[in-house]
UniProtKB/TrEMBL annotation:
GO terms for molecular function: guanine deaminase activity; zinc ion binding. This is Guanine deaminase. The keyword Flavoprotein does not apply. The keyword S-adenosyl-L-methionine does not apply. SUPFAM superfamilies: Metallo-dependent hydrolases. Keywords: Hydrolase, Metal-binding, Zinc. Residues 19-204 form the Amidohydrolase-related domain. Pfam families: Amidohydro_1. Gene3D superfamilies: Metal-dependent hydrolases. One of its GO terms (biological process) is guanine metabolic process. Its cofactor is Zn(2+). InterPro entries: Amidohydro-rel, Metal_Hydrolase, Metallo-dep_hydrolases.
Length: 213
């Protein structure tokens, strides 16, 4: 008897849950073999009331458009774990497709399933994954650093259902932020005259995201 049958899940909209979905091809095939009566991997969770607006699923590298639509309808979220996916050769999540299908998405580390649990590293690897998809002509453009920064901040808070409290600097939200001094004596960031032309904050933030520790 399958574990899902034993548990006998009934809808509990207040229960938060997280798991993995479509991390690698072998896993997707294994789910097909174990659950032949379900349409796809996502359907296994959905039919057992485990895909709700309180659900966060890691990876999602091989989700079809049909599955992404279900995620969107249920309000479920995806945690993009680029370092883990690259380190384990699992797959490449097409974040642009996820966003196109209006699915909530933030960045994660798969509990350091790769070699780092740093959110700065997750930002950098997310850009690299998007660039690889562009190089291989899967997409016509790559994610911008601004878009990836949003995934790490507001995107993550939306995925966790905390965007009314944290995620950006809207009035009334908690000050959940880092105070960075890029001019510190041991700072890895070099500031030049050109950084002060136009919007200085954007230039400095970009350097911090790529060089910060």
């Amino acid at each position: 008897m399958h574990l899902t049958d034993r548990l006998g899940f009934t809808p509990r909209p207040w229960v938060e849950s997280d798991s993995h979905v479509s991390e690698n091809r072998e896993e997707v095939e294994a789910v097909k073999s174990l659950f032949p009566d379900y349409k796809n991997y996502t359907d296994v969770y959905d039919k057992n009331n485990l895909l709700t607006n309180k659900t966060v699923m890691a990876h999602g590298c091989y989700l079809s458009e049909e599955e992404l639509n279900i995620f969107s309808e249920r309000g479920a979220s995806i945690a993009h774990c680029p370092n883990s996916n690259l380190s384990l050769s699992s797959g490449l999540l097409n974040v642009l497709e996820v966003l196109k299908n209006k699915v909530k998405i933030g960045l994660g580390t798969d509990v350091a399933g790769g070699y780092s649990y740093s959110m700065l590293d997750a930002i950098r690897r997310a850009v690299m994954v998007s660039n690889v998809l562009l190089i291989n002509k899967v997409n016509e453009k790559s994610l911008t650093l601004k878009e990836v920064f949003r995934l790490a901040t507001l995107g993550g808070s939306q995925a966790l259902g905390l965007d009314s409290e944290i995620g950006n600097f809207e009035v009334g939200k908690e000050f959940d932020a880092l105070l960075i001094n890029p001019k510190a004596s041991d700072s890895p960031i070099d500031l030049f005259y050109g950084d002060f032309v136009g919007d200085i904050s954007e230039a400095v933030i970009q350097k911090f995201l790529y060089l910060g520790m």
